[in-house]
Amino acid sequence: MANWTDADAVNGALENLGIKAAGQAASSEDYGLVLEAYESVYPQLRRLGLAPWASNAIEEEAQQPLAKYLAGQVA
Fold first, then answer.
1. How far, in Å, CA of 54 to CA of 69, rounded?
2. Per-residue pLDDT tens over the stretch 24-45
């Protein structure tokens, strides 16, 4: 599996929340809400040493945990 972009992380979180299914488009409001959460938590995760990836190159082992964490942040 390839690295995720921030858009992939947002879509993963929306899928975890049950807001959209894989392959479906999210509403712009839902997408924007989760993207805002990602942009907020990413610097915090970096400072804590929990996000060694570049913001748009999320490594495979972090993808699902990040999607679940983002889902929890916006739930």
1. 17
2. 988 999 999 999 999 999 999 9
